[in-house]
Amino acid sequence: MTGEAAQRSKVPAADQTLAILAHLAAQRGPVPAATIAQALELPRSTVYHLLAVMQERGFVVHLPEDRRYGLGISAFELSSGFSRQQPLARLGGPLVAGLVDRIGESGHLAVLHGRDVLYLVEERAPRRPSLVTDVGVRLPAHLTATGRAMLAALPPAQLRALYPDRAAFAWRGDPEASGKWRYSLLKQVLHGVREAGWAGEDGEVTEGLASVGVAVLDHVGWPAAAIAITYRADSDASARADEIAAAVRAAAGELSRRIGAAR
């Protein structure tokens, strides 16, 4: 028995509780207790006992009609704590800075927040145009390279839930802002992102500027963030879009590795 395994054996309930929470976090939706027991090779009685305790503490919720268990509000609060401590920004900031130094164009790191992207890191390259993508700024995900990269990594049901109708494409409550956008067009754009392995936009956020972005995937393949580089559409960088995308892909892959994903 390894030292790590021996240490876990001294506190089996803690190890089993964390295993259940990790298993629930990796699922696309609530699951039956029997499925948890089978997946983790635990006695059903143990799983039911631990689920009852976690339900009492708010870490799981029981859906009696479905006979399933899902993550509760206390688990969400852990996630909020993760966001407050900004590990993505701390881990991704140096990667974005290195990318900007190598390419000579401005870069940023963003996360998906509903139908918006929220920018966590903004690294400006010298003598490059100012950008609207400052830290804390929100923009419509379907218009940005970072947003498209992350949306392309979502399962179809989740994507459809985010964009149920044309009104979902409106920006800041303005119905006219939806413009040409429909769900069918979004699917077409995201198909292109998956085919290319990176997302692009040209003048849709700021006229004259283009971006390439790549999603940062977590341990279950969910888009935790995205990294992008922005440049003048009429510059030499535009001709190097594939080269820039490869560099962004490498940085996104490294950040995925740093947050625990096997990529």
UniProtKB/TrEMBL annotation:
UniProt-listed InterPro entries: ArsR-like_HTH, GAF-like_dom_sf, HTH_MetabolicPath_Reg, Tscrpt_reg_IclR_C, Tscrpt_reg_IclR_N, WH-like_DNA-bd_sf, WH_DNA-bd_sf
Domain of life, source organism: Bacteria
Entry annotated with the keyword DNA-binding: yes
Ranges of residues in domain HTH iclR-type: 11-73
Signal peptide, first to last residue: none
Pfam families associated with the record: HTH_IclR, IclR_C
PROSITE patterns linked: HTH_ICLR, ICLR_ED
Protein name (database record): IclR family transcriptional regulator
Organism: Agromyces lapidis
Lineage: Bacteria, Bacillati, Actinomycetota, Actinomycetes, Micrococcales
